[in-house]
UniProtKB/TrEMBL annotation:
GO cellular component, one term: plasma membrane
Chief location bin: membrane
Family indicated by similarity: Belongs to the exbB/tolQ family.
GO biological process, one term: protein import
Protein name, UniProt field: Biopolymer transport protein ExbB
Membrane topology term: Multi-pass membrane protein
UniProt keyword Nucleotidyltransferase present: no
Keyword match Mitochondrion: no
Compartments it resides in: Cell membrane; Membrane
Domain MotA/TolQ/ExbB proton channel: 67-191
Keywords of this entry: Cell membrane, Membrane, Protein transport, Transmembrane, Transmembrane helix, Transport
Gene name linked to the record: exbB
Regions crossing the membrane: 12-31, 110-137, 157-179
Length: 209
């Protein structure tokens, strides 16, 4: 590996940095974008079951908010109804929508950085190719003779940097698309859960003339 880095020249170091950052982001998102941490499948039914006859206590609502991101959205609705017994349905929806925006923003964390690496890695590889081509032309002496060592080094720099750029960009782009799809799916799940919980919570609202 060290010999490859030496053959690729100094332009390989930005690509190595990008690869380390991309790997760290991919592992971080794989861990945090899991269903139990974002939207447990049975959480909504449990909330409806607990609040079937009365609103849960503040302690229960706090534990719900800490359970997952979906729990935070559902807890926002419960807290809104508990804080204002005459709350209107649009106001209740707005409270849950605001919590949902925060939750979606949390799921999208670092995705822009990963997408930037996927787009920048081929350009960094192209930059290394240009540097290699410059070294290739620099190996040509004015008399027409060439330096074989400089020529071989220039070719290595050009090819290795192009390859490294693609090796980094392709997995980064694939995982970026994968994570983006998971975020969209979680967002839809939270929206549907909120829509289902709103009519249930409106039963506890005091109707006004």
């Amino acid at each position: 590996m060290l010999s490859i880095i030496q053959a690729a020249g100094w332009p390989i170091w930005p690509l190595i940095l990008c690869s380390v950052v991309a790997l760290a982001l991919i592992l971080e998102r794989l861990y945090h974008l899991r269903a139990p941490l974002i939207a447990p499948p049975t959480l909504l039914d449990e909330v409806i079951g607990v609040s079937r006859n009365s609103l849960p206590t503040p302690d229960v609502v706090s534990k719900l908010a800490e359970n997952s991101l979906l729990g935070g959205v559902l807890a926002a609705g419960l807290q809104a109804v508990a804080a204002d017994a005459r709350i209107t349905e649009p106001a209740l929806r707005q409270a849950m929508e605001n919590a949902g925006r925060t939750a979606v923003h949390t799921t999208e964390r670092y995705l822009n950085t990963l997408g930037t690496i996927a787009a920048a890695a081929p350009l960094l590889g192209l930059f290394g190719t240009v540097v290699g081509m410059i070294e290739i032309f620099g190996s040509q002496a004015p008399t027409g003779a060439s330096n074989p060592q400089l020529l071989a080094h220039g070719i290595s720099v050009a090819l290795y940097n192009t390859a490294f750029g693609l090796i980094i960009a392709i997995p980064s782009l694939m995982f970026y698309r994968y994570f983006r799809g998971k975020v969209d799916a979680f967002q839809l799940t939270m929206e549907l859960a909120a829509e289902r919980l709103v009519p249930h919570l409106m039963r506890f609202v005091v109707r006004t003339a």
